[in-house]
Design brief:
Layout lengths: L2 E4 L4 E3 L3 E3 L8 H9 L11 E6 L2 E4 L2 H12 L6 E5 L15 E3 L8 H14 L11 H30 L1
Parallel strand pairs: 2-5, 3-7, 4-6
Antiparallel strand pairs: 1-6, 4-5
Helix pairs in contact: 1-2
Length: about 170
């Protein structure tokens, strides 16, 4: 079998929806968090299998692909090794970039927080043709973002201090 090194964003899902947990009961968001936090490695996941269809990579390993795409969006990884296979189950015939998650929230302690960081990162790192220092609007946004971070940290310290005193 041939192996390729690809960006997860270059691989399509073969289903329109995925379950929120693996067969062993672990939530896909928890696995993503464990990899993001360094508790696990991407190499701990079985390599995803892809088939080249009409010039696009398509994977039947949709939950693992979701994790890899999330880690790429969070800039935790940029490329992964995939195995080329000859065929994909006929029941997995979709070719899509996005999936719906069945069974509720994907889990993980940072699902919402990572979404916020992802959105902020897109704004900070060149979304809509913004580049570091390229616009006065960017500078204003960046200053406001830094102030919010500092205020959030100070609020956290204050809450911690109040809890320790009482």
């Amino acid at each position: 079998m041939t192996c390729y090194n690809v960006k997860p964003s270059e691989v399509l899902f073969s289903q329109v929806s995925i379950a929120n947990k693996f067969k062993d009961g672990r939530l896909i968001g928890e696995v993503r968090d464990d990899i993001y936090d360094g508790i696990m490695s991407v190499k701990d996941l079985p390599m995803i299998e892809v088939k080249l269809i009409d010039g696009k990579y398509v994977s039947a390993d949709n939950r693992r692909l979701w994790i890899l795409k999330q880690l790429e969006r969070l800039r935790h990884l940029s490329r992964v090794e995939v195995i080329n296979i000859r065929r994909i189950d006929r029941r997995k015939s979709a070719r899509t970039d996005h999936v719906k998650i069945r069974g509720g929230n994907p889990g993980g302690r940072s699902t919402d927080l990572m979404c916020v960081y992802h959105m902020m990162g897109r704004l900070l790192l060149c979304h809509h043709d913004f580049r570091w220092g390229s616009s006065p609007h960017f500078l204003v946004f960046y200053i406001m973002f830094c102030c919010c971070c500092v205020l959030s940290f100070l609020y956290f310290v204050w809450v911690l201090a109040v809890l320790l005193v009482f």
